[in-house]
C-alpha cells in the first residue's frame, strides 16, 4: 500500500504520477483538500457539507431538513401540514381550499384534523 492511500478519505482514489501522485477531490457532499505532490504532504481533510444551510436543502420550507454525512434528507411536514416533506407540505386544513377535498359542491366541508375532514349535507 502506498503511504498516500492511508492518508486520504475512504472512497477517494489516488494515482501515481511521474513524479509524485495526485488524489481525487472529496466525494460529493464533502468539501476539502486534494493532496498531490512528491513525497509526504498533508493528510486529506474532507468536511461534511451541510446542505440544509442553503434553502432548507431544497426541502419544503414547512418541513425539517436533516443533515447526514455526505447527504441530507427531508423530514416530516411541520405540525398542521401534510405532504411528502420533500417538495410539498400544504396546510392540513383541506377544507380551506376547494380543490384539496372531495366534498360535493353543495355540501359543507368540516375540518377535523390535519388532513382530516368530513362532508356534511345541507
Describe the structure.
By secondary structure, the protein is mostly beta strands. 0% of the residues lie in helices and 36% in strands. The chain is built from no helices and eleven strands. The strands form five sheets. A three-stranded antiparallel sheet has the order 1-2-4, with no helix packed on it. A two-stranded antiparallel ribbon has the order 3-5. The chain has a two-stranded antiparallel sheet with strand order 6-7. Strand 6 (63-68) and strand 7 form a beta hairpin. The radius of gyration is 26 Å and the shape is rod-shaped. It starts with 13 loop residues before the first strand and ends with a strand. Residues 1-6 have low confidence and may be disordered.
Kindly list the characteristics that best describe this protein.
single chain; 122 residues; mainly beta; 3-stranded antiparallel sheet; two-stranded antiparallel sheet; disordered N terminus
Amino acid at each position: 500500500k502506498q503511504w498516500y492511500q492511508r492518508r486520504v478519505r475512504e472512497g477517494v482514489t489516488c494515482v501515481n504520477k511521474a513524479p509524485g501522485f495526485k488524489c481525487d477531490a472529496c466525494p460529493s457532499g464533502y468539501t476539502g483538500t486534494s493532496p498531490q505532490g512528491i513525497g509526504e504532504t498533508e493528510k486529506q481533510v474532507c468536511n461534511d457539507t451541510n446542505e440544509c444551510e442553503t434553502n432548507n436543502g431544497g426541502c419544503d420550507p414547512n418541513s425539517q431538513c436533516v443533515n447526514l454525512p455526505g447527504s441530507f434528507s427531508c423530514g416530516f411536514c411541520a405540525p398542521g401540514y401534510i405532504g411528502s416533506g420533500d417538495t410539498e407540505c400544504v396546510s392540513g386544513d383541506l377544507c380551506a381550499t376547494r380543490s384539496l377535498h372531495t366534498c360535493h359542491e353543495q355540501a359543507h366541508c368540516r375540518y377535523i384534523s390535519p388532513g382530516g375532514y368530513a362532508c356534511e349535507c345541507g
